[in-house]
Amino acid sequence: MINWKEHYIETEPAERSQYFWVSIFYYMAKTAIDDFGLEGERCIREAVRQFGHERAIRKRQRSDALGLPANLVSMKNMVDIYHDPRFDKLPASGKERFKVQTPEHEFTKVYTCPNNDMWAALEGKKPGDYLNIGCIYCEEVHHHLYGDYDPAIQMNLTDILTKGDECCNFRLHMRKANMKPFDAGQYEPQSWEDFGTNVQDSIYTMFCLHFYHYAKGVYDALGEAELRKIIRIWAEERGVRLKELNRRNGVADDIDVLIEKGDIFLDTRIAKDVEELTPNSAKITVKRSIMCQLLRDHGAGELAPIYFEESMKALCAAYNPDIQVEVSNLTLEGDCGYHLVLKK
User: Fold this and answer.
1) How far, in Å, CA of 28 to CA of 41, rounded?
2) Any keyword Hydrolase (predicted)?
3) How far is residue 210's CA from residue 228's CA, in Å, rounded to a whole number?
4) What is the reported pTM?
């Protein structure tokens, strides 16, 4: 367990959502590798590739549906996530992000990456160090996130922050001479894509997509018990972080603080009826769950109860061991939802 007294803890909603997906990747990868060695690493690398592939194909489907030409500008305009504002901060070196983009070429240098900083903290290192877990994501995702939009795309990542380099240096080419007819299939809008221009909701949606791919990979290859274990470890870390924030703010580790100031309901689209909320108890009916919708629409509804059962219990146990948790009436129908009861 990390000593969070010595680290930055996100409090802004968009940053919290970013931590969710960065940390779920970290704990999925680290635990799978610790427990299963190369088999675990293969599982996670393939899950990252599938995550990147899904995003790329959906972007291509969207641009094709709009009648846009298949090129790098069209690909970049198909936004499926608005970035964490920390990407825009200047690094200590003062070097600004560099970008040149045309339909056939894109050159980008990124000097600031909150993902790199968070992975460094989780690995017990500092930005600029070689990150054994973080670099797995960077090695695998970008070639598919960009390259799978069209077979003609060549994606070169010559420098990577997670490997201790000064920047992430992206070099993309999509030359007309290399293009051939490519059918990505028909675009089918999904209910969980309705985040509009809301930054935190877009990032939370991406967290759910990350979770699906990693959880499904672990569930199928390494087993349900391993998945449950990983979710517990991840959620315990969340509970410890929330407890540390309470210490900094001088407030008690009560249930009302957890619900109102915690990270359980980060997405503003999550609809809920709060039937009871006191320092010692809460009764909440969630009437829309983005996580449940996404898992259902990916044919992985069996992962939903595993996620909510394990994450809620482990989160509360780390936050305040006196809190008892009951998650019931989980439904994958309609907008999806569940009933949550917390009590001391």
Assistant:
1) 10
2) yes
3) 16
4) 0.97
Q: How far apart are CA 307 and CA 310, in angstroms?
A: 6
- Cα separation, 272 vs 276, in Å, equals 12
CA distance 195 to 191: 10
- Length of the chain (residues): 344
Query: pLDDT at position 94, please?
Result: 80
Taking only the tens place, the pLDDT of each residue in 180-223 is: 999 999 999 999 999 999 999 999 999 999 999 999 999 999 99
Half-sphere exposure of 83 (CA within 13 A, CB side): 11
> What residues does each domain of the chain span?
4-191, 228-343
- Which amino acid makes up residue 213? H
User: Which residues are registered as beta bridge partners of 294?
Assistant: none
CA atoms within 13 A on the CB side of 111: 12
Q: Report yes or no: 290 and 208 within 8 Å, Cβ to Cβ.
A: yes
Separation CA 195–CA 198 (nearest Å): 6
Whether the Cβ atoms of residue 44 and residue 32 lie closer than 8 Å to each other: yes
Q: What is the pLDDT of residue 91?
A: 78
pLDDT digits (tens, 9 = 90+) for 255-305: 999 999 999 999 999 999 999 999 999 999 999 999 999 999 999 999 999
CATH number corresponding to 4-191:
3.30.1380
